[in-house]
Design goal:
Elements lengths: L1 H10 L1 E2 L7 E2 L1 H11 L2 H16 L13 H4 L3 H20 L3 H27 L3 H8 L1 H11 L5 H10 L1
Antiparallel strand pairs: 1-2
Helix pairs in contact: 1-2, 1-3, 2-3, 2-5, 3-5, 5-6, 6-7
Length: about 160
């Protein structure tokens, strides 16, 4: 069911020419990481990437294929398992809302670093151009997504599953 949430989040997309598309996948990663333990979160995101790599239409705009993982946006997808693992580790080791928020910030920063670094490696732009394309458009949306007021039900849902 969590993988389905990730697939659905991938389909809610705002595309900009020449930029990494904005989707609700990050929100889905937050939900998975806060709900499941670190190993489960890791496995779910790896299964999602495997499904997409073999061609199932699970990535944005109902697409699939290995080219999505090795293309300019692939770094963000490849960062999902690390992001989910780190956030889940924070959430389940530190049962404190501020530390959970720190975990989400650290996990998102990992996603930005891997995604932007991979983008720079493949397309060879300057750091400033990469930042403008790969990070800046997402900062406000990710900050809003992390706001505790928007996702308080995740804490209750996580506690009910324990």
């Amino acid at each position: 069911m969590a993988i389905a949430l990730l697939v659905i989040g991938a389909q809610i997309v705002i595309s900009f020419p020449g930029m990494v598309p904005i989707s609700l996948q990050t929100l889905a990663i937050y939900v998975i990481a806060m709900t499941f333990n670190k190993n489960q979160a890791l496995m779910m995101t790896l299964v999602y990437l495997f499904m997409g790599a073999i061609g199932l239409p699970v990535f944005a705009n109902f697409t699939g294929g290995i080219d999505h993982l090795i293309g300019p946006n692939g770094g963000f997808l490849l960062a999902f398992p690390i992001m989910a693992y780190v956030i889940s580790w924070f959430v389940h080791n530190y049962d404190h809302k501020l530390r959970n928020l720190v975990g989400m910030i650290v996990g998102t920063d990992i996603s930005y670093s891997v995604g932007c670094g991979y983008f720079m490696y493949l397309t060879k732009p300057s750091f400033n151009n990469s930042f403008l394309v790969c990070v800046l458009p997402f900062l406000v949306g990710d900050a809003l997504t992390r706001r505790e007021q928007e996702i308080p039900h995740l804490y209750r849902w996580r506690d009910e599953l324990r």
